[in-house]
């Protein structure tokens, strides 16, 4: 049942599980736990429904969701590595969470990313070998909207066609770019070699991009795990417009010796009108799935965190876990634009209201055409060469020798630059970083946005790696396949300045943005470790009754756009919770 307001929720139900946050992970957990008909499951979401939000349905309109009503509209603290800029930090505030507003890349990461999680947690359940089945449980591979022959563009052996969230190969061709990129990969070989499928655990090389799009529309955790057939379950209750502020201990624990207090009460306020908080009780567990920022804030509001920092903002500390909110990791992104010799790039579409209107009619009638595209048909995952002088000064942040340190994403337009003319954009991102940031409270008002410091390019390695990524992008464009095509670099540097390491290092901070992949703030660690927040079964250490299931539990950021990892975490977490209570 779907309720628009907490006041509509029947008061006579005894909820076994209450899940805070109806986002990517929360929707999975709500679906899987409500498969057990004797469990009453309550999912609480601060945002509204995604039903009928056409900008969320149409893949191409992804960027229009940034900064709008379905965004929490956070801003970071001033970022030293970004020349002191504070930047917008988008998170989905809508059913489906960030999966309803993200850019739909479907990337699982390197096998070594999961093996590293297994090794730091001491739980082989997090290894690639074991996590594979959870990726398959989540994925339903479907044909692309343009019906093109996808043979040779992916490896069917590592995909599932029977899971929940729809995944497809590119849905609309980037005519002038797709073939050139494949040709360049053949001509250059080496680190740019063609990789049939970057989702088989070995990412290195150039691959076709897989996206969470099905039948020409976005497939989100809401459209898949909370679709009508599941919402009709009598034991699944989803309440929208409900902000979770805190979790509360059952009986007041002794401050100096809390002895694992039990938290089974959750405090909420409706976002629809001013009013006093309401309390709800879970008889089995509270599950925090409010995302890296939301779940962290709920714990801090509740007095679970660094006791000194909490006292400083006027919150009574209940359980001292200094790691709460630390270890924030994200992928910095620099979009570099080159002018090209063409009249057929996506720029002409971006600059023509007539073409867009026609595309809208095509999408409405057939769910095909340019609007089914997320704008990126290929990507490359690379390593910085072993003989680079960087390794004399810095450790390798990647999870292993088969995991990438650089990512390049290819788009057939000037994208964000907004420049007139025809372009190619290469998004340069860092899949592994040495910077770590934090989330802390601004005040003791639970509705105040927290202080978010992703510390982008906060470590000198990250700056040098970004420079190396830009040089890789230039090297790729030097292939014969681009010889009569790529004219000059036009953004954010100029053809004259791009080759100066000094200029690039000094000015790139003015342009680098986030890839919107914050993770790690409630990281898993071994049982008994003196750091970390949740145990390998995702229970908050030192508390009874509370688990965290979302991007915040990742101890290290994977070399992946983070939704597929979150889906797999949520599928495994659901199994762990079911096994515990069965
Ligand atoms: C603009 C953008 C583009 C992205 N592009 C990609 C991409 O192309 N591919 C990819 O793999 N990943 C992408 N990501 C990242 C990916 O979407 C996220 O890592 C993933 O969805 C996070 O899942 P989650 O469950 O941890 O959090 P979310 O999906 O964000 O879910 C958290 C939910 O909790 C709710 N919530 C928060 N606080 C509270 C509260 N106090 N009370 C009640 N509810 C609350 C939120 O409204 C939200 O619905 C992108 C993200 C963004 C923002």
UniProtKB/TrEMBL annotation:
It is an enzyme of class 1 (oxidoreductase). The keyword Secreted applies. SUPFAM superfamilies: FAD-linked reductases, C-terminal domain, FAD/NAD(P)-binding domain. One of its GO terms (molecular function) is flavin adenine dinucleotide binding. FAD binds at residues 244, 516-517. Monomer. This is pyranose dehydrogenase (acceptor). It comes from Coprinellus micaceus.
């Amino acid at each position: 049942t779907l309720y628009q307001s907490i006041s509509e929720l029947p008061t006579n139900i005894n909820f076994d599980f209450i899940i805070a946050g109806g986002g990517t992970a929360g929707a999975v957990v709500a679906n899987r736990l409500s498969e057990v008909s004797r469990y009453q499951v309550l999912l609480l979401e601060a945002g509204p429904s995604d039903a009928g939000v056409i900008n969320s349905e149409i893949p191409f309109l992804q960027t229009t969701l940034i900064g709008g009503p379905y965004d929490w509209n956070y801003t970071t603290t001033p970022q030293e590595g970004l020349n002191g800029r504070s930047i917008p930090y988008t998170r989905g505030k809508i059913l489906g969470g960030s999966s309803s507003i993200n850019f739909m890349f479907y990337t699982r990461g390197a096998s070594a990313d999961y093996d590293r999680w297994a090794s730091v947690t001491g739980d082989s359940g997090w290894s690639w070998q074991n996590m594979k089945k959870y990726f398959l449980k989540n994925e339903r591979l479907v044909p692309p909207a343009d019906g093109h022959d996808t043979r040779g563009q992916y490896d069917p052996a590592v995909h599932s066609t029977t899971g929940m969230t729809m995944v497809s190969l590119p849905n609309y061709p980037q005519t002038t770019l797709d073939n050139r990129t494949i040709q360049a990969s053949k001509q250059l070989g080496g680190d740019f070699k063609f990789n049939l499928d970057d989702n088989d655990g070995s990412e290195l090389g150039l691959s076709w991009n897989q996206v969470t799009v099905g039948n020409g529309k976005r497939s989100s955790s809401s459209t898949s795990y909370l679709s009508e057939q599941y919402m009709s379950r009598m034991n699944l209750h989803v309440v929208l417009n409900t902000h979770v502020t805190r979790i509360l201990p059952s009986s007041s624990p002794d401050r100096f010796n809390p002895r694992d207090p039990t938290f089974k009460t959750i405090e909420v306020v409706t976002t629809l009108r001013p009013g006093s908080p309401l309390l709800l009780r879970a008889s089995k567990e509270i599950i925090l799935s409010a995302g890296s920022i939301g779940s962290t804030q709920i714990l801090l509001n509740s007095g679970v965190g660094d006791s000194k920092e909490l006292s400083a903002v006027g919150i009574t500390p209940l359980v001292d876990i200094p790691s709460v909110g630390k270890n924030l990791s994200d992928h910095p992104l620099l979009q570099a634009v080159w002018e090209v010799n063409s009249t057929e790039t996506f720029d002409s579409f971006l600059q023509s209201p007539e073409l867009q209107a026609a595309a809208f009619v095509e999408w409405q009638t057939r769910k095909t055409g340019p609007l089914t595209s997320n704008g990126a048909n290929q990507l490359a995952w690379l390593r910085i060469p072993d003989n680079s002088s960087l390794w004399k000064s810095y450790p390798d942040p990647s999870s292993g020798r088969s995991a990438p340190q650089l990512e390049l994403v290819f788009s057939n337009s000037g994208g964000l630059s907004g420049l007139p003319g025809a372009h190619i954009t290469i998004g340069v991102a860092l899949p592994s970083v040495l910077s770590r940031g934090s989330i802390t409270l601004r005040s003791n008002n639970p509705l105040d946005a927290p202080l978010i410091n992703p510390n982008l390019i906060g470590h000198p390695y990250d700056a040098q790696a970004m420079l190396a990524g830009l040089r890789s992008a230039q090297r790729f464009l030097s292939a014969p396949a681009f010889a009569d095509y790529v004219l000059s670099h036009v953004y954010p540097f100029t053809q004259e300045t791009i080759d100066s390491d000094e200029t690039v290092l000094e000015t790139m901070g003015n342009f680098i943005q986030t890839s919107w992949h914050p993770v790690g703030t409630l990281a898993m660690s071994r049982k008994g470790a003196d750091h970390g927040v949740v145990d390998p079964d995702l229970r908050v250490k030192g508390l009874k009754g509370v688990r965290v299931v979302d991007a915040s539990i990742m101890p290290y950021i994977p070399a992946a756009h983070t939704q597929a990892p979150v889906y797999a975490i949520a599928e495994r977490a659901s199994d762990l919770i079911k096994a515990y209570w069965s």
